[in-house]
Structures are given as C-alpha cells and as structure tokens.
Amino acid sequence: MAHIISVINNKGGTGKTTTSLNLGTALSQLGYKVLLIDFDSQSNLTSALGVSKVENHIGKLLLNDITAKDVMIPLEDVTLIPSTNYLLDYEYRINNEPGREYLLKEALDPIKPKFDFILIDCGPSLGTFAINALVASDYYIVPMQAENFAFIGLDKIIQISDKVKKRMNPKIEMAGILFIKFSYRTKFSKAVIKSLSENERHKEKVFETKIRTDISLMESTAFGQTIYAYAPKSRGAEDYLNLANEFIKRYGKK
To answer: What pTM, to 2 d.p., does this model score?
Structure first.
C-alpha cells in the first residue's frame, strides 16, 4: 500500500516540482514503484517529464469522467498522472461537488496497492486542490529556500493541515521541511537553521538532507529530464537520493 506524500507550499518558486520529480525518481532508483501526480495548472511537472499534448488529466479523473487507468502514463522511471493548463476550470466545477474535499482520495484508493509511493505536486495555493491533496495524503513535505520571507505561509500551511487532520484525515503528518538551493556557507542560511532548531514545533521536522544549489537541477527540467537522466553524478542527484533514503529511514515503507 502506497505512502501518499503532498509536496506543498503556498509560495511559488520554492522547489515543489523539482522535489516531486527528483525525489520520486530517486525512490524509483531504490527499487520502489512511484506514481507522480501533477496537481498544478502550470503543468510544470508534466512538462519536466517530457509529456505534451495531454488529453486525459487529473481534472477529468477528479470529476469521474475517466478512470485512473485511463489517465496514468507509464514512463521510464515513474508513472505520471498529468495536469492541464485548464485545470483551474476544473477546480471551479469541483467546488460544486458534494464532498469535494475527498475526490482525490476516492480516485486514488483503488490504485494505492499498485504503488509504493505516490507524490502529489501541489500548486502555489491553499484552495480546493490543496485540501484534496492533504485529505488523500499520509504525509506532506514543505520545500523552501533559506531566504528573507521564507517562512511566510508556513504557519498557514500548518494551520490548514491541522484542520484537515482534525476534521477529515487524522493520519496526515508533516514529514518535514526541506531546504532547497541551500548554501552551508552563507550566514543567513545558518541563521534560518538556528531559528528552526530553537522552535519547539519545527525543530524535529527539518530534514537533515539539504538540496544544495545546483544549476543542473534547473537545466534538467528545462530539457524535460530528471536529474538522474541529465546529470546522474551531480550534487542534485546525490542530494535527492540522500533525501529518499532519509525519508525511508524516518517513515519506513508500508
């Protein structure tokens, strides 16, 4: 039975897609069966995997227009449920559905036994889609950069997840805060880590693995490749493999 993990931050440009793509691929490199879900209307994860001309997508699946079998695209390392640029139109339609917060969970329940991990790349908002992702998930990861205003939105994400946990999904848990484009040499990065380490709620939730600054991570997505296809010996490839191993060590495998 799959672990379902939402990669979520309501701030844009925090590395959600990069993390979903390369953590998922790293887990597949370790021998696990991985499903990636593009839950963002920008469709960056879909594009990063080299998929274009999408007909069936996550929006249609949520409205029960198609089955999961119809929408899943098997790729070399992972399986993908793609997004579409018209996904926000589907969010509007979904808002009129009874029990709209449970639509993703209902769609994934039949296919959970087929995978070891399901990663959901969420868009930069905390609307209906984000709630659907949290209701369906066992864990969520918050990627962020160690920079000014990095923590804007973190409290809001935690508040929303706490409400989801109380009202709809008692098993949801923060897997961790993941630092992206990290430099161990800057004073500000050290100050951010120190601040988190002194916070009673967050100090146990920061991943030991940090994703270091690596131009290969940006280039790989631009060329429609994972870091393991584009630059398998890069720092980015090493870091995401370390993150995959850390996640398994922390939370095991169902």
So the answer is: 0.94
